[in-house]
Design brief:
Blueprint lengths: L16 H9 L5 H19 L6 H15 L11 H11 L5 H19 L6 H17 L9 H9 L6 H17 L6 H20 L12 H15 L5 H15 L4 H16 L7 H13 L8 H21 L1 H19 L4 H18 L2 H15 L8 H11 L9 H15 L3 H4 L1 H9 L11 H15 L1 H8 L11 H8 L5 H24 L3 H15 L2 H4 L6 H18 L4 H21 L4 H8 L4 H7 L4 H13 L1 H14 L8 H11 L2 H27 L4 H24 L6 H14 L5 H17 L1 H6 L4 H7 L8 H15 L5 H18 L5 H21 L4 H13 L7 H17 L4 H5 L2 H7 L5 H17 L2 H6 L1 H13 L3 H18 L1 H7 L5 H20 L3 H8 L9 H4 L11 H40 L11 H19 L6 E2 L5 E2 L12 H9 L1 H7 L1 H17 L44 H22 L4 H14 L10
Antiparallel strand pairs: 1-2
Helix pairs in contact: 1-2, 2-3, 2-4, 3-4, 3-5, 4-6, 5-6, 6-8, 7-9, 8-10, 9-10, 9-11, 10-12, 11-12, 11-13, 12-14, 13-14, 13-15, 14-15, 14-16, 15-16, 15-18, 16-19, 19-22, 22-23, 22-24, 25-26, 28-32, 28-33, 29-32, 29-34, 33-34, 34-36, 35-36, 35-37, 36-38, 37-38, 38-41, 41-42, 41-43, ...
Organism: Rhynchospora tenuis
Family: Belongs to the RRP12 family.
Protein name: Ribosomal RNA-processing protein 12-like conserved domain-containing protein
Length: 1278
């Protein structure tokens, strides 16, 4: 317990401070605290004797009076009352009114200053005195510096005290005093005093004076002490004095002393972080350049390098804000220094350099700097000679980040380059062209030693998004797609944004046409593999269309030209329909969104832009309301042509192939002219009506049943397609057309054809979802319609549930309670029974529907929230009383789902527990399973306090269930008991557990302890990662809740967060180890390369391209040396070559190899069918010959006519092999016995012959017998 502990936080201005101190310290046994209580008690008694109020002002004067007497005698420093009085005075100063401080503060300051001049004063007394002086100065009169200079000098003098705690207190007091001097005239002399003291100590340090006359620290040490004070004070000092200090700091940095440099860097960091506008940017920039140009990466430690990196980017940001022109000139030097730190081996330093580089790119590289570099680059191409600009120097530094010396941190280099591409934008094609070429060249590095391929592709994608695909191809001089550059297509597909449709129409389609022209030639030459690969290139190039439609810059100009190509491909190439439809959707949706957002508030647009990347935001900035409207106008003009194509394709293809076209049709209908959509819709309805009449007439004339059935099936399929087509036009239909579609759907909902009925329900669900007015208008008809068509096929259940949801959710908002109850009760049983459906989608939709109805109750009426919840819960609970087990279990599952979703229902659900435990007596497996799942939800979602109150009833009911159930449910009951122990604790469960079931708790405890011991024994990140990466899903999962064994329910959020943090730490440590491994490999490879180059020219490591080429060559030769016979043999076309004899041929001459490659396609594909069939036949034979997988056991050498084995011509010598069987690892005895039969069949004869003999005698006996029968062929080699 220290004197500095807060005791006045809850006291008011007139509170009894003495009593508070006594309460705080009277229980302490320390002598110093007892002395403080005695002093405070004496002052309180004196004030009482004088009839003075016990307020802070009285205590202040009561403590100052004895201190005045003690300050006259230096020997009083050892007086036992001096330190307690100073401590109590420091408590009084913050609570004394300002008027009292200004009246008596100067006198009390002088008293405390005299006492602080005593050499033998205790450290705690000095600290308390410093707090007194600082508090009096801060609260006192600041009009005259002469009245404050002496006390201020005392605080400044103690800033270099030899005791550390005193120095720290002095530095804090100086900071508080300077903070109170801000915007006042006295700040200048106060700052000059600090500057003068610092200059004096620098002179003492230059004179190498080891100690001052009083035996204190020497000049150099005092300089270090003052640097510690400047860390707190320099940002608060006057501009003139702070700039003088900065000049001295530069001089100290030139000494290259690690201790001084560290202190100076810390001071500069504080200056750069604080808001100090008075700093001279030229001086600060000069210091930064001095530090940046002399970064000894090899000599410094990781934390020092990290501090330097932070200072460089923080300081440059500050200089840039103060003087932009001055900062731009030195910006390349700072980037170069950060690059040097990035190549260090220290994890903290390289991450600081990475953060600094990305921060400076985003904050200091602006449009003016970029435009200057672009103009200079363009003029240089025209023949004008000029030096590199600042931005070009910076980009050259970025290119150096791909050098071999950065191979261990290429992942960070790639991220820096990505930020650079995002910042430079389209100007990257002028400034970063060489970087793009180097990035593409790195793709050729081998996978074994290049583990950052994913990051490489992300960086190349950033370049594509910045410069655009057309300029990207121009930089790389890509004219067509081949095996060398095909890997670029997925990167382009993922990152193209803001491109032009003209690029796809001219460049991409030109590549597609060239490749398609070569396919017939390859097929004629029987090069089927090459032909298939060319078709893959065509599809990959077409896959770029959706990306080119992502905020294109020329939609209004080139969409009409592109539509003819798109319509032709939709009709003739079915495999491209999904790509084309998705592209059309992207175009329409983006322009609709932008047009609608311009009509809304600006803040809505801002929130939408936050989720976009920089490239998408840059492309979107080109879109205005006028541009979006013009684009929609062009697409609207082409909608009739697309509707014709879609209508033809819809009716010609199957229903499964129309899924990609329906969303595109809906988007086109939303922007098209109402007349166009109405005409297409009416034509479809007329055709649907005529087909319906044909079906009705055919049913009336059923003379030829077989022919009629076939015709009816085809007609029903066409009717279903027409329904789908009409539903896709819904966004462009008026109320009249929607009513017409509804009238066509109603009779089909009761049709006997399954697919047709499913389409009818699907169409109705779309109508109810998109047309709220239709639902409100037909609310009286729809419930009766759903009741009349309740007998639907199981395929239609899902969409029928969709319709029910919209009807029930709307009814819940109705004010008529009677009608609301009737509708919900009519359909709730159907929804509950759907929870038991075999179809997973139907079951999931039923659960979702039940929850959504609950949410509708929640928001239906704020005043009747609990009433709505209780009504819904009671209606679901009424199904529990059903005599049908199927309905009972469905109702219990519904209650469990509602309880899981809505915490308000937990208390109500507990009231159902007695009834649920009574249902266990029915001993129905289905009901028991549902009840246990219901209890599992209650345990998982309940709070510990509520669970403890009901713990006895839960345990009693579960144990009864265990006694009356099979072993299957005993495991579930045990799991629930474990969940209760996890939540409530073992002791709480033990109190309510009956004596006869205590063995169960003992078993659970032992299993838990065993798992904990096993977890502690698993050391290493591998096992930890395997445990922590398996995270449980906290969302609803009915399969887990009602499964046979299930999960442990909900996990604690703290545990989940702990697991995530451990996984993140493991991933970070793995990244660091990966970088160190990569660094070691690179060093070894480079040393080998340099050894190989001793007789030739030396390897230029400064050239990144040469270094990467050496790395690739050395790794290639290394792989050739390490390649083994077990590696698969693959020809030039990518086919796997299987040698029947198991021997590889000798190396062929180049001419022979080239001639063989020409015929590789025809040879391999001609014999493909025969090879596959023969291989499958042999595999089947091997499977039949072995019970545990295929194996050559040597049975073919067994003689069926006599004992022993016999030889076969052109075969191996006779042998016997017992294949390894994993059944031996099984814990079950019968499985092990089955696995041992194989060994028994091999060793049965030798076992009897060698039984009871030692190993040596058995071997000798065996050798004798074999020697005697050497002439016999039938000996079996074991």
């Amino acid at each position: 317990m220290d004197f500095e502990m807060e005791i006045s936080g809850d006291l008011s201005d007139n509170s009894d401070l003495g009593a508070a101190v006594l309460r705080r310290f009277e229980a302490s046994a320390k002598e110093e605290h007892q002395r403080l209580c005695a002093v405070v008690g004496g002052i309180s008694q004196s004030l009482k004797d004088l009839s003075m109020p016990l307020i802070p002002s009285s205590y202040f004067m009561g403590a100052a009076t004895p201190l005045d007497r003690l300050s006259m005698d230096p020997a009083s420093a050892s007086d036992p009352d001096t330190v307690p009085l100073l401590v109590f005075l420091s408590y009084c100063v913050p609570m004394v009114p300002v008027a009292v401080v200004r009246r008596e503060g100067a006198r009390v300051c002088q008293i405390v200053a005299r006492i602080l001049g005593f050499e033998s004063l205790h450290e705690k007394g000095i600290k308390a005195g410093l707090r007194c002086i600082a508090g009096l100065i801060v609260s006192g009169d600041k009009s005259s510096w002469s009245n404050l200079s002496s006390c201020y000098g005392v605080v400044l003098r103690l800033a270099t005290h030899h005791r550390e705690m005193v120095r720290m207190q002095s530095h804090a007091c100086l900071r508080d005093i300077l903070q109170s001097f801000q915007n006042l005239n006295i700040l200048v002399p106060a700052s000059e005093a600090i500057t003068s003291a610092f200059e004096r100590f620098l002179l003492l340090a230059g004179g190498s004076i080891p100690q001052d006359q009083t035996g204190g620290p020497g000049g150099a040490t005092q300089v270090l002490y003052m640097l510690g004070a400047l860390k707190e004070c320099l940002p608060l000092m006057a501009p003139k004095s702070s700039n003088v200090i900065l000049k001295y700091l530069k001089t100290l940095l030139d000494l290259h002393q690690s201790v001084v440099t560290k202190a100076a860097v810390e001071i500069l960091q504080v200056v750069c972080v604080r808001d100090t506008n008075g700093v001279n940017p030229a001086i600060l920039l000069d210091i930064l350049c001095t530090i940046g140009s002399s970064v000894p990466v090899e000599e410094k430690q990781g934390d020092q390098l990290a501090s330097v990196a932070r200072l460089l980017y923080l300081g440059m940001k500050k200089v840039y804000n103060l003087n932009k022109e001055m900062a731009v000139v030195k910006l390349p030097l700072i980037f170069n220094s950060l690059g040097d730190i990035l190549a260090s081996e220290h994890e903290e330093a390289l991450h600081a350099a990475f953060e600094g580089s990305t921060t400076l790119i985003e904050s200091c590289i602006d449009d003016d700097l970029i435009n200057q570099g672009v103009m200079q680059s363009k003029s240089r191409k025209q023949g004008v000679k000029s030096g590199p600009t600042s931005i070009e120097k910076i980009c050259s530094t970025f290119e150096g980040l791909l050098g071999i010396q950065y191979s261990a941190v290429w992942d960070l280099s790639f991220q820096i380059l990505s930020v650079a591409f995002d910042t430079l934008g389209e100007s990257s094609c002028y400034l970063m062209a060489e970087v793009i070429r180097s990035l593409v060249e790195m793709q050729t590095l081998p996978d074994e030693d290049f583990s950052f391929r994913k990051q490489l592709h992300e960086t190349i994608g950033s370049a594509v998004a910045a410069v655009g695909p057309k300029e990207f191809f121009n930089i790389l001089q890509v004219k067509d797609i081949n095996d060398d550059n095909a890997w670029l297509l997925p990167v382009l597909k993922q990152h193209i944004v803001g491109a032009s449709l003209n690029f796809f129409q001219i460049d991409v389609l030109d590549m597609i046409n060239k490749i398609q022209a070569t396919i017939p030639k390859l097929v004629n030459e029987d090069k089927l593999f090459s032909a298939k690969r060319a078709e893959g290139y065509v599809y990959s190039l077409w896959s770029l269309l959706p990306s080119c439609c992502n905020y294109p810059s020329d939609t209004a100009s080139y969409f009409m030209e592109l539509q003819n190509v798109l319509c032709d491909k939709l009709c003739n190439e079915p495999n491209l329909r999904g790509i084309i439809c998705r592209s059309l959707q992207t175009l329409i949706q983006q322009n609709k969104r932008i047009a609608s957002e311009f009509k809304q508030e600006d803040d809505v647009m801002g929130t939408e832009d936050e989720h976009l990347s920089k490239s998408e935001r840059r492309a979107r900035q080109l879109y205005s309301n006028e541009v979006a409207e013009e684009n929609l106008k062009v697409m609207k003009a082409s909608s009739s042509k697309f509707f014709k194509v879609f209508h033809t394709l819809f009716l010609e293809s199957s229903s499964e192939g129309n899924g990609c076209m329906q969303p595109a049709m809906r988007d086109f209908a939303s922007i098209s002219d109402k007349k166009v959509v109405r005409k297409v819709f009416i034509d479809s309805m007329k055709e649907l009506l005529s087909l319906t009449k044909e079906v009705v007439n055919a049913k009336q004339n059923d003379s030829e049943s077989m022919q009629i059935d076939n015709q009816s099936n085809s007609t029903n399929l066409r009717r279903a397609l027409l329904l789908d087509f009409a539903a896709s036009l819904l966004p462009g239909l008026d109320a009249k057309e929607i009513d017409l579609l509804f009238s066509a759907v109603k009779p089909i909902m009761q049709d006997s054809d399954e697919k047709l009925q499913k389409k009818a329900y699907k169409t109705l669900s779309v109508i109810l979802k998109d047309s709220g007015d239709f639902l409100k208008k037909n609310l009286d008809i729809l419930p009766d319609l759903m009741l009349d068509s309740s007998n639907c096929h199981f395929q239609s259940k899902r969409y029928r549930l969709e319709c029910l949801y919209y009807i029930v959710a709307h009814v819940l908002k109705d004010s008529f309670e009677q009608r609301r109850g009737e509708v919900i009760s009519s359909f709730l049983a159907e929804i509950l029974l759907a929870l038991k459906e075999a179809n997973t989608k139907t079951r999931n939709r039923a659960y979702d529907l039940l929850v959504e109805i609950g949410h509708a109750c929640e928001v239906a009426n704020d005043g009747a929230r609990k009433e709505n919840f209780s009504l819904l819960f009671n209606m679901v609970a009424s199904g529990v009383t059903s005599e049908i087990p199927h309905m009972t279990s469905a109702a219990i599952k519904g209650l469990a789902r509602l309880t899981y979703e809505f915490s308000d229902l937990i208390d109500v659900a507990y009231n159902m527990l007695p009834s649920a435990f009574l249902l266990l007596q029915r001993k129905n497996r289905e009901i028991i399973k549902a009840i246990l799942g219901f209890i599992k939800v209650l345990v998982a979602k309940s709070h510990v306090n509520g669970l403890n109150e009901r713990l006895s009833g839960l345990v009693e009911g579960l144990l009864k269930c265990q006694d009356n159930s099979t072993n299957h449910f005993k495991a579930k009951v045990k799991l629930l008991i474990e969940m209760l122990i996890t939540k409530c604790g073992l002791e709480a469960v033990k109190k309510v557990m009956p004596e006869e079931h205590m063995k169960l708790l003992t078993n659970i405890r032992k299993i838990k302890e065993r798992k904990e011991r096993k977890a502690k024994s698993l050391d290493g990140s591998e096992s930890l990662a395997s445990k922590t990466t398996v995270s449980r899903n906290s969302r609803w999962n009915h399969t887990q809740i009602f499964s046979d064994y299930g999960d442990d329910g909900e996990e604690n959020d703290d545990v989940t967060e702990f697991r995530r943090s451990r996984v993140n730490s493991i991933s970070r440590s793995r990244a660091a180890s990966l970088r160190s491994t990569q660094r070691r490999k690179t060093t070894k490879i480079l040393s080998e390369d340099m050894g190989d180059e001793q007789d030739d020219d030396p390897l230029n490591l400064l050239d990144s391209q040469t270094a990467r080429l050496a790395l690739q060559t050395s790794l290639g030769s290394k792989r050739k040396k390490e390649s083994s016979y077990d590696e698969p043999e693959i020809d030039s076309e990518g086919r796997l070559i299987v040698r029947i004899e198991g021997k590889r041929p000798k190396k062929e001459k180049q001419s022979d190899r080239s001639s063989d490659d020409n015929n590789s396609d025809s040879k391999s594909f001609a014999s493909k069918k025969s090879l596959v069939s023969s291989a499958s036949t042999k595999a089947n034979k091997r499977r039949k010959g072995s019970e545990s997988g295929w194996a050559y056991t040597g049975k073919e050498y067994t003689s069926k006519k006599a004992g022993g084995d016999f030889k076969k011509s052109d075969k191996l010598d006779p042998y016997a092999y017992w294949p390894l069987d994993r059944k031996l690892l099984n814990r079950r005895a019968e499985r092990k016995a089955a696995a041992r039969k194989g060994m028994a069949s091999v060793m049965k004869k030798m076992t009897k012959r060698l039984e009871g003999k030692s190993a040596s005698s058995a071997l000798s006996a065996r050798g004798v017998k074999i020697g005697k029968k050497k002439q016999k062929i039938g000996s079996k080699s074991r």
